[in-house]
Specification:
Strand content: 35-45%
Radius of gyration: 15 Å
Helix content: 10-25%
Structural class: mainly beta
Number of strands: 6
Shape: globular
Strand order of the largest sheet: 1-5-4-3-2-6
Order of helices and strands: EHEEEEE
Length: about 100
């Protein structure tokens, strides 16, 4: 996942996500493939994003906007509609997930 607030980072994140979308060594098309809508829960509310699927390798890329933040999600193996995003304001609790294990 990548997020940005109205700058070139969102375009770069989308470009990087599409690099994985195609098979290694496969030449990407001159333009993006057609997208379809997908609904993802964001902070408990449904949100519609653009979704691109690659049927040959199960990889997908999704893009949407929450307030002024553009999100780029990518993945495989899990359906994007099964995701539930939650806003996090303090990332320190996520910086070392093994710290509580001693």
């Amino acid at each position: 996942m990548s997020a940005s607030s109205g700058n070139a980072e969102a375009g770069d994140a989308l470009e990087r996500a599409f690099e994985d979308y195609y098979h290694p060594g496969e030449e990407p098309p001159a333009s993006q493939p057609a997208s379809e809508p997908v609904t993802i829960t964001t902070d408990g509310e449904p949100m519609t994003l653009e979704l691109w699927r690659n049927s040959s390798n199960r990889y997908w890329v999704a893009r949407g906007c929450v307030e002024s933040t553009e999100l780029v999600l990518s993945g495989a193996e899990i359906e994007p509609s099964e995701l539930s995003l939650v806003r996090v304001s303090d990332l320190t609790s996520f910086s070392n997930p093994f710290a509580s294990l001693g």
